[in-house]
Amino acid sequence: MEKTLWARVLNSDCGNRKSKIQNLKWVALFAIVVALTVCGARAEAQQSKVYRVGVIHQGGPYKAVVDGLRDGLRQLGLEEGKHLLLNVRDSKGEVKAVEAAAKDFERDRVNLIFAVTTSATTAVKNVTSEIPIVFSVGSDPVASGFVQSFAKPGGRLTGVQYSTTDLTGKRLEILKEMLPKLSRVVIIYNPKNRTAVEAAALARQAGKQFGLQLIERHATSVDELRQRFGALKAKEADAFFSISDAMVTSQAQLVIDMATSKKLPTMFSEQSLVTMGGLASYGQNFNEVGRLAAKYVQKIMTGAQPRDLRVEIVDKFELIINLKTAKQIGLTIPPNVLARADRVIR
Q: Which bin fits 283, alpha (ψ -120 to 50), beta or left (φ > 0)?
């Protein structure tokens, strides 16, 4: 009888253990189902959320950056109106308009701001305090105070750098090769723009190296730019050389038209300006810059922090020459320079 009782006890313990194990399995299964349901709900909510992106550019060729941004977002599967809304502001080269737009965006609590050019990014950074900022700038973002380093931005800003200021000397060298008799070059820039002042210093340095006289004119507004260009006298300069200044570049069509009327060859940093009638450019494609920036917008939309997103550098440079413009101003481009061009507009 003792054996029978002991056997019953053992069987009871075994049954309890099996029951407990079975209960634990059900609990674990339930936890997995709940977790999957929550994750699915979060994913669905994230997909259904429409993100609002404030975009600020300074007009003219900088619109190509915004076009590239839209192209890049589409390539990433993000549709305007379905996944995000872009509120685009064109400041027409005026910093005050950039500041006003940035303040509007922060008041409206957009999810992030995309700023094009160094001066625009500086203005946006200065008048906002919390919104993540994705930039596309032509100068060193570390030296400009936007990020702590390229690898670890460390704040609320990150984005793409395209070399504009760094290529000042190279563009001047190419202009000299295109115009062997070149001796006087006019540059017009805003003396209140730190990036432009640095670019002017580099142009001066390169000018001495190539035996060129730089004629410097200052303009702090679009009206002043028009006045300075209009005041240029015949044969006062042999060519117009564009340096890194967002306000001047934003008025590229004005500059091109006035230069052409004075039969002045022009050298720019952005390719689209050559298709607009400029003589030549050496630098990056703004549309490509915008496409690269789209990756940062997408990553921040899905939870990444700007401080953790490495700044990307665009390092592909192309020489573009417009032979239609050369003919219009009575200029013959040396064959050796034409042979080096990545693209020739005929």
A: left
